[in-house]
């Protein structure tokens, strides 16, 4: 019974973590799909959003979950500006290194980290909300329950926000005209130009959208976690693994990939050792590259086409 | 005549030169992590070094030389710390090296200093190896990791009397040596180690490993972590209602005010070892703590006090040294015997350590949102709270 309790608690934690991972991965995969750029400043953009949420909480008492609606639009604008004034000019230049956009995004990330260190010092910060330690216990609802499970309110709320944002994005991409333009551009940008789509505008828009999504992820994350200028790096890495695992540019792939990674890390923590969780992440990354080059998206595609 | 004038001019020139040389600045560059994850600790120390330097200069400097501090950012990366110190020794000819924070960096710096025969004063790095490597030029101000838990161990033995213990630690030099020592002490005193597991610092979700700990039901959960991990651990322990007779931390993260700020009521009753607290009765400790609080709004942790004291130790050695050659400074360091705000300082060779200063370690407990010294009893600022209530019974 005790073992069952540990297993169930592990899976619950893994799914909740995976939901947030998926949201972090989504933004990167969107930018990847449309522009064929790996945005390595992804985690740093999240850090910027977290500072916005932090300051709004500290100075005005705005709840971090409300800050989603402010930080995301701000990040949207930042994303568009980055695409318009930094990425586009660099892509146009014929350089020795075709990967110069990758280097560019790494550079943007470094600048953001340094700016945050200069302005906000390297203090650790967090937003202690009143309901931070509210937790539901299975035994509260079912007094004689043989096992005890707990779900923290914060994790649950963040998870459901993540699901809602994902659904909204899916609706936007599949149902709206703009969403269709984005998908068309990601499938074949030359054809999209011929169809009269303003590809430059679509690109700016999707960079903005990607930044806004990871900004939302940052706001959902800060009540659970904490904040310091160099925080972005590890989340860029996680987003990168999810993007590869999910299949480059695939939305559904990113969601499934995020959940898989979350549960896999939790199971590794419990049954192999917590120190092995980052190793597990790396194993998944290499395994995806070797055995499933197209990621989860390729499996989904095969199923749909019946091949 | 002309010759006389020239010689007079010459002698004047030299005399002037001597005056200049005498009132020259003593430039000390201190490598510290000022960016990256460990930057918080670098900052506490940087501020404390600066307070000490201001006091030293106000009292006439080091042998009449004005002490000018500079800081270089190592980002807690051993290779960068190594590069900085190579430059300090080879190019700037700095007579003594002070600083660094993480054990990994201190190890790298110690190796360079020993190789280049320049005295190095380790300030807060805990890994035991650093002063066990038979280095002649490496001195350490803080107690080695093996002694950190003494205060907590005393409290455990006399009050908690546990039969089982679980140990969680972060996978750094500091974390693993701290966990290793605790496991050794526990085995030696007949406490069964049920689990000893490491985690990667910066982890988001500790609940999987904590639910495993919960299923093992240890009497004591001992954790060696830096600050934000410590807060997350306690918050998630509360979420899971993981009950133990004692939650104990091995210095670093659990001993600084940010731990309480971030873990909130989940930090109540937590006991942690530390090397120093603002309540200790060493001369100058209280003044330093108040000065720090006045300038930066918070009381410093032991990291700051060690840095503050380190500069006085260096000043003392430089003033006693016959010349500022590495050999003479080393001899002066070796002969150090002084009282600082961090405690008594004397570098001895004992129990396999060389040039090691041993200071008594304390145990703090979080009582009503404040760190209070509870052990050893002679230094206590408050009576310890034990046993602690189960999570379900707390409000």
Automatic annotation (TrEMBL), chain A:
A matching Pfam family: BPD_transp_2
Lipid bilayer topology: Multi-pass membrane protein
Subcellular location field: Cell membrane
Source taxon at top rank: Bacteria
Keywords: Amino-acid transport, Cell membrane, Membrane, Transmembrane, Transmembrane helix, Transport
GO cellular component: plasma membrane
Transmembrane segments: 6-30, 37-58, 64-82, 102-120, 153-173, 204-228, 234-261, 282-300
An individual GO BP term: amino acid transport
Protein name in the entry: Amino acid/amide ABC transporter membrane protein 1 (HAAT family)
GO MF: transmembrane transporter activity
Database matches in InterPro entries: ABC_transp_permease, BCAA_transport_permease
Lineage, opening ranks: Bacteria, Pseudomonadati, Deferribacterota, Deferribacteres, Deferribacterales
Claim: tRNA processing is one of the keywords in the record: no
Family of this protein: Belongs to the binding-protein-dependent transport system permease family. LivHM subfamily.
Automatic annotation (TrEMBL), chain B:
Record Gene3D superfamilies: 3.40.50.2300
Keyword Magnesium assigned: no
Swiss-Prot/TrEMBL GO biological process terms: amino acid transport
Keyword line: Amino-acid transport, Signal, Transport
Pfam families for this protein: Peripla_BP_6 (PF13458)
Domain of life from the UniProt record: Bacteria
Residues making up the signal peptide according to the UniProt record: 1-23
Domain Leucine-binding protein: from-to ranges: 32-357
Family (UniProt): Belongs to the leucine-binding protein family.
Protein name: Amino acid/amide ABC transporter substrate-binding protein (HAAT family)
Gene source species: Seleniivibrio woodruffii
């Amino acid at each position: 019974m005790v073992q069952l309790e540990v297993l169930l608690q592990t899976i619950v934690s893994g799914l909740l973590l995976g939901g947030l991972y998926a949201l972090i991965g989504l933004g990167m995969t969107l930018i990847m799909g449309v522009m064929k750029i790996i945005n390595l400043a992804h985690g740093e953009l999240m850090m910027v959003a977290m500072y916005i949420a932090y300051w709004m909480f500290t100075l005005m008492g705005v709840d971090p979950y409300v800050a989603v609606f402010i930080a995301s639009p701000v990040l949207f604008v930042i994303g568009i500006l980055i695409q318009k004034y930094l990425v586009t000019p660099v892509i146009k230049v014929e350089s020795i290194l075709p990967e110069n956009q990758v280097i560019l995004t790494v550079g943007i990330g470094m600048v953001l980290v340094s700016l945050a260190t200069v302005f906000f010092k390297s203090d650790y910060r967090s937003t202690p909300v009143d309901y931070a330690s509210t937790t539901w216990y299975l035994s509260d609802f079912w007094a004689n329950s043989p096992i005890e499970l707990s779900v923290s309110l914060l994790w649950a709320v963040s998870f459901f926000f993540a699901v809602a944002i994902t659904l909204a994005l899916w609706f936007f991409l599949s149902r709206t005209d703009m969403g269709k333009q984005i998908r068309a551009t990601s499938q074949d940008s030359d054809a999209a130009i011929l169809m009269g789509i303003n590809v430059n505008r679509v690109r700016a828009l999707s960079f903005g959208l990607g930044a806004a999504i990871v900004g939302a992820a940052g706001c959902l994350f800060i009540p659970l976690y904490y904040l310091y200028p160099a925080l972005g790096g590890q989340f860029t890495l996680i987003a990168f693994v999810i993007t590869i695992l999910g299949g480059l540019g695939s939305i559904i792939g990113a969601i499934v990939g995020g959940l898989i990674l979350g549960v896999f890390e939790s199971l590794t923590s419990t049954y192999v050792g917590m120190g092995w969780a980052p190793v597990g992440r790396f194993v998944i990354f290499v395994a995806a590259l070797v055995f499933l080059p197209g990621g989860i998206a390729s499996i989904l595609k095969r199923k749909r086409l019946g091949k | 005549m002309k010759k006389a004038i020239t010689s007079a001019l010459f002698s004047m020139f030299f005399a002037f030169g001597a005056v200049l040389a005498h009132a020259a600045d003593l430039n000390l560059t201190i490598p510290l992590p000022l960016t990256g994850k460990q930057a918080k600790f670098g900052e506490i120390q940087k501020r404390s070094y600066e307070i000490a330097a201001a006091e030293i200069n106000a009292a006439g400097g080091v042998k009449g030389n004005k002490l000018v501090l500079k800081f270089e950012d190592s980002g807690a990366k051993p290779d960068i710390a190594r590069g900085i110190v190579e430059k300090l020794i080879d190019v700037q000819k700095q007579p003594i090296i002070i600083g660094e924070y993480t054990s990994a960096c201190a190890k790298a710096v110690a190796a360079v200093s020993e190789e280049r025969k320049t005295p190095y004063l380790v300030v807060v790095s805990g890994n035991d190896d650093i002063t066990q490597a038979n280095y002649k030029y490496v001195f350490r101000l803080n107690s080695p990791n093996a002694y950190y838990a003494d205060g907590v161990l005393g409290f455990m033995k006399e009050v908690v009397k546990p039969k089982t213990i679980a140990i969680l630690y972060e996978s750094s030099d500091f974390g693993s040596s701290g966990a290793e020592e605790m496991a050794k002490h526990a085995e030696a005193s007949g406490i069964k180690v049920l689990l000893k597991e490491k985690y990667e610092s910066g982890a988001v979700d500790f609940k999987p490993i904590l639910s495993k700990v919960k299923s093992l039901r240890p009497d004591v959960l001992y954790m060696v972590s830096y600050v934000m991990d410590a807060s997350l651990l306690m918050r998630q322990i509360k979420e899971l209602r993981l009950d133990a007779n004692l939650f104990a931390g091995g210095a670093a993260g659990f001993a600084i005010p940010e731990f309480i700020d971030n873990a909130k009521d989940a930090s109540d009753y937590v006991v942690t070892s530390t090397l120093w607290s603002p309540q200790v009765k060493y001369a100058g400790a209280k003044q330093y703590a108040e000065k720090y609080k006045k300038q930066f709004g918070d009381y410093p942790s032991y990291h700051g006090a060690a840095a503050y004291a380190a500069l006085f130790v260096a000043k003392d050695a430089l003033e006693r040294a016959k010349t500022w050659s590495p050999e003479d400074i080393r001899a002066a360091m070796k002969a150090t015997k002084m009282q600082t705000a961090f405690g008594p300082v004397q570098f001895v060779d004992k129990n396999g350590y060389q040039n090691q200063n041993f200071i008594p370690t304390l145990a703090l407990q979080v009582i009503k949102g404040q760190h209070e010294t509870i052990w050893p009893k002679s230094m206590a600022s408050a009576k310890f709270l034990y046993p602690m209530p189960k999570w379900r019974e707390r409000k």
